[in-house]
Amino acid sequence: MNPEVPGAPPMRATPRRVAVGAVLLCLGIAVSATWPAPASDIGVAACAVVAFLGAAAWALPAARRSSHPAVWGWYVVGLVVAGAGAALALHVPGSVVPMTMGALPGLLLTVLPLLRLIPVGTWRQLRGQLVSSLLLFLVSCLLCALAAFELVSGRELTLDTAFDATLVTTGITLALLIAMGLLVVSSTAGELRRVAVLALFGQVAINLALVLMAFSDEAHGTTPPLVMTAVCATVGLSLLLSAALLDTAPPTASPADTPPSLVAALLPHLTALGGGLLLLLGVLVHDRLGLTQTALAGLGLVLLVVLQTVSWRDGRDLTRRLQRSEAYFRAVVRSAVDPVVILDGQLTITWTSPGMGDILGREPGRLTGRDVRVAVHPDDRAALTAALLTPQTDRGDRTTTARVRREDGTWRLVQGVVRDLRQDPDVGALVLYCRDITRTDPPAQADAGLRAAVGGTDPDTGLPDRSALVADLAGVVAAGARSAVVKVWVTGLADAHRGTAAPADVVAEVAGRFSRVLRTGDRLFRTGPQEFAVLLEGTISDAETLAHRLVSTVGADVPVLGLRLSASAGATAVEAEDHEPVQVLRRAAMAMASARTAGPGRVRRHSVAALIAANRQEALRADLSRALDRGELRLVYQPVVDLALQRAGSVEALLRWQHPVWGAISPAEFIPLAEESTLVTTLGRWILHTATAAIAALDRPDLSVAVNVAARHVRSGQLLADVRDALAASGLPGDRLVLELTESVLLDEAHVTDDLEALRRLGVRIAVDDFGTGWSSLAYLVGLPIDVLKMDRQFLASVESGPRHQALCRSVLHLGTSLDMDVVVEGVETARELQLLRDMGHRFVQGFLLARPTELERLEATLDTIPVALLAGAADDVREVAL
């Protein structure tokens, strides 16, 4: 990615500067009005033109950077059309059209875009309320405008004169625009409501200028109405521009079970009340009530009834959804394997699932309202209280164990996983997932040897150990029962950097997570420092399903008590020809090894295919060490396209391997093999030298090259020297090199950060590759030397039809922009995806739609076709929309 490509200048407009400019222009208009004619005419007109052109110049970049570029883009178009219409009406020789009428078509263009500020989800959920509110707003605004005119002028408004016709048209337009603005204010929240309020007041100011323009048309000259017209127009433009500048929050829709806000409930009624009071005041002052006012008042009352009816219906539906949701929750919790207890801030039980009654030997209803510590052993109460009330500082849950007394006086050992949701406004409670881990004696009919084996216990978790697994498996093999074994390897339980074991509480937490996903009858064992096993009844398919559930509980992106872990699992069935437990365990170990090779989060079953795959990997591992010397490795280059400049700003160097026997080998297959040893550092050094030399030899001084750097290469401490050597040998400037690193590397030792800072002093740019798919923590984006974020292809999944995926892409763009980082979107493959990314404001994209990875000999020809590819992508999108 090339973050150095020159782009648009940074936006210099801020709401504060806009306000200062508006005040200065208004003062200039006021001063100009005191001059003698024609200087006063020229001064007022000059200030108005400066306000109009300045707002247009600042509005274009503000619209592009906003969350709703289409809305503000339409505003710019509408105001330009309005200004042009007013100017034509004023200056065309022989024109009898007032300036007010000339400006009306442009203002009408801003009606519909304003509604696009309302989130799409809100339209879907509250369509009836929004439509009835809009009609009520419109009628109330018309009533207010008519009553205000008659109060001020002392006469009824008719259509007998051109002036009155102009006022009627202007009033209807004003009422429509203000009604739209009120609707947006009532149906938005947070920062978006602030934007809507500014837009509403801007609309009011623009329309007031329109009304005053009608009076100035009658006066023919630089009169107070004309001066006030210029002032109101300037204020309105400044408010609309400030709204566009503040529109930076991504649009969100309210959940379907969120009730309407107080503003949404009261604003239509307050507007109707205002219209009614003005009507009543007019009757008291002039002692008359016109037909038009009577009709509007009657229609307003009807719309109030309609709005109340629709609101009642929506409230009824919301209540039913909430009741149904609560019923679903209770049904799910009742059917859960682990009993659930919900506690308030004082550790009082507010709700329990039926399973908790089984553990304590009493009815669940009798537990509600009691302190959870009452039934706990006195020696365990202090530890339990600390585990429940201590704030959780990370995203992981906390595990605690305590002895609990049953109704019959016996004690049970209960393990609880604490999830602190007290800060969640929708929950505001502690949720405790409980499991009875009391050890039971083996059945009386079991032999003495089996009872001795079952006694083996892991000291960290209290789980049965490997000897217990062998004993249980021996019984299964002897009985010929349909069973299976899952072996889980947890990477990180033995610290890879320091060679030490993980803390006991981390091991216990992992065991607790595994226990919660087991079915009734499944048995969990700890068979090694980083290894767990499960013996289950069922088929190999059942074992695979359970293995996936076990692996998913140790997500690589969610640290466990501050420690990053990942899991892989292998599964095998107990077969009829098995005579010894060791045969089953050997197959499970082979399957687990295959899963570990495949990567974190993978599950593999033992099969002949897995054995063949393992043999292939061993052969590739051996051949890869000689591939570089034999000339089997080469680089291809994929352009990264700058949509603003319509050309490629950089290329990414990608490694390819042509095996003499198996042909082209996927990078996803051989790169992990290289990363297992120092070979990846040798390959990385060769890629740096080759790529920098190739790009430096091209006659394209504005083209940069991005190189992927492996984690082992960064941690080796040799990266800085290798980059210096490559730049010196090739002559490529440092600012034309981008190093792409994974997120996990950036969170490594302190010397890594020091090396990256030294690289940036050379001009080299640092990019986070596959952002959002690894150890994503927004905190590191602030404190580490990062220039570019590369969004993984996963972000584009369903982006064409999923509003949430679109919001996610938009959020990453805003995040990078606010931190002064460029954002590159990888994996763009369709014209529709490209257009959506354009509309969101993304500037840098990479994917097969625009250019595939290309050999160096054809790279320049490929770069020259980028503008054509962009045009073709745009044309394809137009055809898709038309279809």
Describe the SSE topology.
Blueprint: H1 15-33, H2 39-65, H3 69-91, H4 99-108, H5 111-115, H6 120-125, H7 127-153, H8 162-186, H9 190-219, H10 224-246, H11 262-286, H12 291-335, E1 340-343, E2 349-352, H13 354-360, H14 378-389, E3 398-405, E4 411-421, E5 429-436, H15 448-454, H16 466-479, E6 483-491, H17 504-516, E7 523-528, E8 531-537, H18 540-552, E9 566-573, H19 581-598, E10 603-605, H20 608-627, E11 633-642, E12 647-659, E13 663-665, H21 667-674, H22 679-697, E14 704-708, H23 711-715, H24 719-730, E15 737-741, H25 743-746, H26 750-761, E16 765-771, H27 778-783, E17 788-791, H28 803-818, E18 822-826, H29 831-840, E19 844-846, H30 859-864, H31 866-882
Parallel strand pairs: 9-10, 12-14, 14-15, 15-16, 16-17, 17-18, 18-19
Antiparallel strand pairs: 1-2, 1-5, 3-4, 4-5, 6-8, 6-9, 7-8, 11-12, 11-19, 12-13
Offer a quick outline of the entry:
This protein has 31 helices and 19 strands.
Describe this structure in words.
- This protein is of the alpha/beta class and 883 residues long.
- The protein has four domains: 15-249 and 272-312; 336-436, Beta-Lactamase (2-Layer Sandwich), CATH 3.30.450.20; 448-606, Reverse transcriptase/Diguanylate cyclase domain (Alpha-Beta Plaits), CATH 3.30.70.270; 620-882, EAL domain (TIM Barrel, Alpha-Beta Barrel), CATH 3.20.20.
- The protein is 55% helix and 14% strand.
- It is built from 31 helices and 19 strands.
- The chain has an eight-stranded mixed barrel. It has a five-stranded antiparallel sheet with strand order 2-1-5-4-3, sandwiched between helices. Strands 7-8-6-9-10 form a five-stranded mixed sheet, sandwiched between helices.
- It is flat.
